[in-house]
Here is the input.
Amino acid sequence: MWFDRHDPMEKRWPVRGFRLAAPGRGPIGPLWFGAGLCLALVTGRTHAGDSASGVYSEPQALRGEALYVQHCVACHGTHLEGSPAAALTGPAFRARWEDGTHTLDDLYYIVRTLMPNTAPGSLSKAEYADVVAYILRVNGYPVGAADLVPKGAIMKPVVLQPH
Ligand code: HEC
Here is the structure.
């Protein structure tokens, strides 16, 4: 089957391979940091270099859990341990997604366009965002005040990385 092929990961999945430029280093570095911090305080979001901190709400993750049980559990397991399909938590997930080159938008894109494997695109965008919120919660990303809105402008700056 297509997913059994031993192609390099980036070829297996249509993940758009962009990487965010780090904020400028050097003498103006602290300025960037300050600006990022202010932005984080104002918007409740972290600046580009940080992991997905507080980008979804608890009610959203709960909705996502119900959707996960309905649409994903058969292939990815009760605890997202991945049986028979890929694990969505643990070492495999960290190695695959938290390598510093993947954003929340990449993860969302894969889920929205390819999952469930047997019925891609069968959920609404908001439902896919809910499921992704649940995946984030299981992976220990902190809960925030507001729902994750499935918009590129919001998800692209969020780099998935160890936290
Ligand atoms: C019919 C089985 C099936 C269902 C249902 C299913 N998936 Fe998958 N999923 C797969 C397969 C097969 C892959 C390809 C990778 C692999 O071999 O597991 C995959 C891959 C993924 C990946 C990428 C994993 C990685 O590390 O590359 C994510 C994320 C994912 N699925 C999320 C979901 C979510 C969320 C749902 C529910 C909305 C879902 N899947 C439903 C079979 C399924």
Remarks:
- Residues 55-163 form a domain with the Cytochrome Bc1 Complex; Chain D, domain 2 fold (CATH 1.10.760.10).
- Residues 1-24, 34-49 have pLDDT under 50 and may be disordered.
- The radius of gyration is 16 Å.
